[in-house]
Amino acid sequence: MSTVIRFETWRTFRSVRRQFSTNQEKTKMDFYYLPGSAPCRSVIMAAKAVGVELNKKLLNLQAGEQLKPEFVKINPQHTIPTLVDNGFALWESRAILVYLVEKYGKTDSLYPKCPKKRALINQRLYFDMGTLYQSFANYYYPQLFAKAPADPELFKKIETAFDFLNTFLEGQTYVAGDSLTVADIAILATVSTFDVAKFDISKYENVSKWYENAKKVTPGWDENWAGCLEFRKFFD
After folding, report:
1. Is 198 left (phi over 0), alpha (psi -120 to 50) or beta?
2. pTM of the model
3. Which of 37, 42, 93, 192 is catalytic?
């Protein structure tokens, strides 16, 4: 009888210790961000998808908080998003997405181990970084933050990027394969930012269908949209 009691006590202790360790790990995952930032919002959705809690630390870029010595020590490039997981610091949103799903994903569905599937996801991530999101930044940011006039040539690059995305999505429900991946999460953060900028997504049938579905199936969509609405204030 006493052996059974000791075993049950030990098992309970192990369970509590695991829970305590898990909670400790969660509290150590600091996330430096701005809610309106598309790259930051993609990380929030990925964290939600793998069940990770982020200790969000808002950085006021306009006040120069990213240049404070304590933050530069964490991230010498002083950019957001920046994640600090139990002492391990990482920045660049797409690198963070991959890190989160590889370390904390219960399965590999968001970033499959198959080399061909993973290569396609990587291609879409690079497309988002270098073409789709970059076209947004090049066209809108000078207008929003430098009061520059709209550049029609840069707008054409947005249209070209959406043409590419529309082609990728021909006959597809997801942007890279037959299920939700980190590529969908990254591109959803970007496309929803175009949405609040009042870019006409409806002209791209495949993108529109994907967008409506992605909003329904992506964990953390509501928080992403709240961040979009925060960003929309720059357009008002």
Report:
1. left
2. 0.87
3. 37
